[in-house]
Write a structure and sequence with these properties.
Length: 410
């Protein structure tokens, strides 16, 4: 069953339930009245007919709305509309998208390739939209969100701003292809998220974060060497085209496993003094620094090496060697040769501290939401999402964060 039909049916059921409850209330009231009111079988039949006609009208109206506002996913029954996905896609990476469109127009990129890239790109953004719904659910469940009264007050202010532009809220929703419920959740998210950040990101908490992770923010530099055991991640060189995807994936995983085992063996030999790190780098490393004993030189927390490399390197003390680290090109062993402590204060690093805290707060909320929410995707979307789920990461690690996917309500 498609999510559009599912949600239309659920809304129709809710409308019928309310009407049925109303009928029971009216019948009970008429039967028990002490002021001379009465009801007959004919009265009840007429009332039931009116209610059924009204219910039919509501169901048809909702079905029409569902056709206009297709749903691509639901999180605990809350819909994410195709229009939301399209707008988020347009707002993120606009310059790159314009270049891609020009490349299609110039014939440098085929229409099929453009469609494929768009599909995969939108699947990633949808993961972020779902993550935001998970975060909003966590805010609400844990009492960190804003009240419904606050949402309604902001909705009335928004409606007033629309009025100044000679637009009604119904016209806005129609133009944005979203219903009033989705608009309320958009407001609840923006108000709740900003309120949550204001409560959590204080000077006191930022100072605690700085004290707990000084190397990440104080400008510390490290002099390091590496051993790189390269891994060929291509899926084989079958000439007949008869290899299966599963077989190819198994081959790649075997290469990664072999590289990790090699790094573990080298590390064991080095820490037991059976082999010098520099000698091991010259003999076994595929990195460009191998002939210099693997020496890379001085690195900072965020450059020039990739994040996964720096994350491991900045945990080391002088003379220590990391466990095997998986990077884009293969498995690394990292040795810390020297540490130059940084001198930045927490106030000088405040901007970086805030950004780090925002990412961690976002991830925590999404993880909480994943523990308690049910997620459903439309059939066509679910197939596309499988393309980007090779590593099966939590949605909390989504590349598109809470700010990018927010609806513009000003």
């Amino acid at each position: 069953m498609s999510l559009v039909r599912y949600n239309a049916g659920m809304n129709e059921y809710a409308q019928l339930k309310r009407l049925s409850d109303a009928l029971v209330t009216v019948r009970c009231f008429c039967t028990k009245s002490t002021v001379g009111w009465s009801t007959t079988a004919v009265d009840t039949t007429v009332l039931l007919a009116v209610i059924l006609v009204t219910a039919t009208y509501l169901a048809l109206a909702h079905a029409a709305a569902a056709e206009d506002y297709p749903i691509v996913a639901t999180v605990d029954g809350q819909p994410i509309f195709r229009s939301q996905l399209n707008r988020a896609w347009e707002r993120s990476g606009g310059l790159q998208r314009e270049k891609l469109r020009r490349d299609v127009a110039d014939g440098e990129v085929s229409a099929e390739e453009y469609a494929r890239r768009r599909e995969v790109d939108q699947a990633r953004i949808l993961s972020a939209l779902v993550a935001r719904e998970l975060a909003l659910s966590a805010l609400t469940r844990n009492g960190w969100g804003v009240s419904q009264e606050t949402v309604e007050l902001e909705l009335s202010r928004f409606e007033k701003r629309l009025g100044e532009k000679e637009m009604t809220i119904e016209e806005f929703c129609q133009q944005a292809k979203m219903d009033l419920g989705a608009l309320r959740r958009e407001i609840a998210w923006q108000l709740g998220w900003n309120s949550y950040l204001s409560a959590k990101i204080t000077d006191e908490n930022l100072q605690k974060l700085f004290a707990a992770r000084p190397r990440d923010f104080d400008g510390t530099r490290m002099n390091v060497s590496q051993i790189l055991i390269a891994v060929d991640s291509s899926d084989g060189d079958s000439k007949d085209g008869d290899s299966k995807d599963g077989d190819s994936n198994d081959m790649v995983q075997q290469r990664w496993a072999a590289a990790r085992k090699k790094c573990e063996q080298l590390r064991a030999d080095i820490v037991s003094d059976r082999l010098e790190f520099a000698e091991a780098a010259r003999r076994f490393s595929s990195g460009g620094s191998s002939q210099d004993g693997g020496r890379i030189g001085w690195i900072e927390r965020k450059r020039p090496m990739p994040a996964v490399f720096n994350d491991a390197a900045f945990k080391l003390q002088q003379g220590e060697i990391s466990e095997p680290v998986r990077g884009a090109l293969g498995m690394h062993l990292i040795k810390c040769l020297e540490v130059a402590p940084g001198r930045r204060t927490w106030r000088e690093a405040q901007g970086e501290l805030e950004q780090w805290a925002i990412r961690r707060l976002w991830q925590r909320l999404v993880e909480l939401g994943e523990q308690s929410c049910e997620i459903h995707y439309a059939d066509d979307v679910d197939r596309t999402l499988m393309i980007i789920r090779g590593q099966k990461q939590s949605m909390a690690t989504s590349e598109v964060g809470p700010t990018v996917i927010a609806e513009p309500l000003d």
